Amino acid sequence: MAGKSLNKVMLIGHLGKDPEVSYTASGVAVGKFSIATNESWKDQDGNLQERTEWHNIVAWRKLAEICGQYLKKGSKVYLEGRLQTRSWDDKNTGVKRYTTEIVADNLIMLDTRGANSVEPDVSAQSEAAPPEKDDLPF
Q1: Hey, which of 11, 42, 73, 82 has its CA 20 to 30 A from 54?
Q2: Cβ atoms 60, 51 nearer than 8 A
Q3: What is the pLDDT of residues 22-59, one digit of tens each?
């Protein structure tokens, strides 16, 4: 399996806050939001245990704009993407910081909608790779 690899994330969860959409200097839309996934199990004493995991999501271009327009805090979504780790120098402390986030490629809204509601087409793959590092707003 030399040369082959896979970086794929699939989540079903609820948004923790409304998406924040901004634009790079060259006008490329970037959307950021978090998704909560929940896990529950019974411990050895039979008590129900629960854990919530938060995932930071980044969407680009048309998908970012659709997320900003249609998603709200609490929205339930199915999301596909890939893990990406980036680093930056903290301006206050000079320490190198890292974060791992999910770059969204595909999103399906799972909330129940009325019969007359408009369901946007967000199942299309992202058009291209994210902008160059110099074009990032963070």
Answers
A1: 42
A2: no
A3: 999 999 999 999 999 999 999 999 999 999 999 999 99
Looking up tokens 């929205």 gives: 75
Residues 6+ apart with CB under 8 A from 116: none
Q: Which residues, in sequence order, are CB contacts of 101 under 8 Å at separation 6+?
A: 55, 56, 57, 58, 83, 84, 85, 86
Distance of CA 3 to the CA centre of its chain: 27
Question: Which phi and psi angles does 63 have, rounded to 5°?
Answer: -60, -40
Domains defined for the chain, CATH in brackets: 12-112 (2.40.50.140)
